[in-house]
Design a protein that fits this description.
This protein is an all-alpha fold. It has one domain (8-230). It is 74% helix and 0% strand. The N and C termini lie close together (5 Å).
Length: 240
């Protein structure tokens, strides 16, 4: 069945990519994957960098599924009879995360990042790119935690789709990264211009979290999903 949770999960991934702790470092990530400095004047093999980026996103997707998708599915299934209070509590947490993201107050643990050096001793190659993706997921999870937390909360609301929500979230984070890798130098100017609007990204992310949190706390999220299913084309509900 269709669910508004899927586009919300994808939007959370996109906002994670343009967050202040990820977007400014994208050229650094690409330079690390290609083994050269990444600048507007540099010349790169597009396919080589793009293929390395594929292994990078594969690495962090695997971590998200193992660390968050599988446990959420198991826990949500085991606690299904308590799903309503759990999702309402999750909604309260999302509202707090949203206020933190907007800068109205600070939750210190969400400002912590760990930059592990796994794979730094390896030669440039696909294995190192995959390991770098793993360390990215492990090291930057606290920073993107509020948006990822929203997706996990949606998983508790719909346990049978928890892993799919995590995969869609990872896709939202991966797609713009892969597009940037494909465009290479052309994307540098776009990233710089987007960096100037970080405050708008923070506000948009915070509003998304607060909005989803309010829907979960008030119990209206299920009603919206039901409405979405009702207006969806028959061919779509038949194949999903």
């Amino acid at each position: 069945m269709p669910s508004v949770s899927f586009p919300l999960a994808f939007a959370a991934g996109l906002l994670s990519f343009v967050s202040p702790c990820v977007l400014p470092l994208v050229p650094v990530y690409l330079g690390y994957l290609s083994g050269t400095s990444f600048s507007a004047s540099a010349s790169h093999d597009r396919w080589y960098v793009f293929s390395q980026a594929l292994f990078f996103v594969g690495g962090f997707t695997l971590v998200f599924v193992i660390l968050f998708g599988l446990p959420t599915t198991v826990l949500a299934g085991a606690l299904q009879e308590y799903s309503e209070p759990i999702t309402r509590l999750g909604g309260v947490v999302l509202i707090v995360f949203g206020l933190h993201t907007m800068g109205l107050f600070t939750v210190p643990i969400l400002n912590v990042t760990r930059q592990a050096e796994i794979g730094s001793g390896l030669q440039v190659g696909y294995a190192r790119s995959a390991l770098f993706g793993v360390t990215f997921a492990a090291g930057w999870t606290p920073c993107i935690g509020p948006l990822l937390g929203a997706v996990i909360t949606l998983g508790f609301a719909e346990p049978s789709r928890a892993i799919w929500f995590i995969l869609v979230y990872a896709a939202g984070l991966a797609v713009p990264f892969l597009v940037t890798a494909a465009l290479l130098t052309r994307a540098v100017g776009w990233l710089k211009r987007l960096n100037r609007h970080m405050r708008a990204v923070e506000i948009a992310s915070g509003l998304l979290l607060i909005g989803v949190g309010i829907l979960l706390v008030t119990g209206t999220f299920t009603a919206i999903n039901t409405y979405f299913i009702g207006i969806a084309p028959e061919w779509l509900t038949r194949h999903l």
